[in-house]
Amino acid sequence: MNNVWTILIALLIFNVLIIVHELGHYISARAFNVGIIEFSIGMGPQILQRTSKKTGIKYSLRLLPIGGFVSMVGENEDAGDDPRSFAKQKAFKKIIITAAGAIVNIVIGFIIMFTYVVLTPVYGGTTIASFESEEAVSYQSGLRVGDEIYSIGGDRVYTGDDVVYQISMKGYESVDVVVVREGKKVALENVEFPTVENQGVTFGTLDFKIYAVEKNFGTVAKMTFSQCKASVDMVFDSLGGLLTGRFGIEHMSGVVGTTEAIGAAVSYGITELLYFCAVIAVNLGIFNLLPIPALDGGHLIFHFVELVRGKPMNQKYESMIHAIGMILLLLLVAIVTVNDIAKLF
Predict the structure, then answer these.
(1) Model pTM?
(2) Do 279 and 231 contact (CB within 8 A), yes or no?
């Protein structure tokens, strides 16, 4: 696909997801009568601006098409005794306003994923239909045709995509598998699967086929929840892999790498693009809720502490912690971006 179109589509996707994230903060703040100074689409120098005569809120369009922001009264500065100040709100209101952006992203991701599942003509269940041969690694480990896979490595699986994902992440080494065989649960220890290597990381892979499932409202709902859960698992499995050393910084992708992946998704058609958008939306929501300073999750930690102790933390120290977190996040983004660019050559 033309690189220019790929970049434009990627920018559109990122911007829509970030703007709806900020809308979550905006709508919840308005609902609690928190003062809004500005709602901006884009960053950098201002191009257009309109100020509401009724509310005094500035609505602006800025030069750089990279997301946007909501600026609230008393969010980052002392607003005195203004009752509309964010800082003056009860802790539970702060929690709702802060979490609203990520929650909207997750809801949007669920809606997009539901659309993707509806448009997908066939999807697999968890029952083994056939093996590549009787010499198949997993067959030799005890799996059989007709087995309904119940869990892999202790994690419950509900769909064919669950099976693929769990085997990919855990099947690079022997893993315990529970199946339903002739109506009874059977625990199989140390099941092995074939492996493949990608960028120096070993993944498990399937050596059997699974039966398709009948498409109805129940299976569509199950597949949608399963796909969204897999997107959440992806975030924590990736972080876990980084902490254990299975994955390195070189395996992370930022905006450049994601843009390249979007181009590949577009080339496969609208359904693949929908899937990719849903994964990005859910990932964006979950990542923002992580308890990392500067992210929404980092702010939530302070709001929960305030809820427990009955009074807010010193804003000076809180702002300092978030500033340090922002610097570290920007450094990580820079490293990942350089790594993404290096992969292109």
Answers:
(1) 0.82
(2) yes
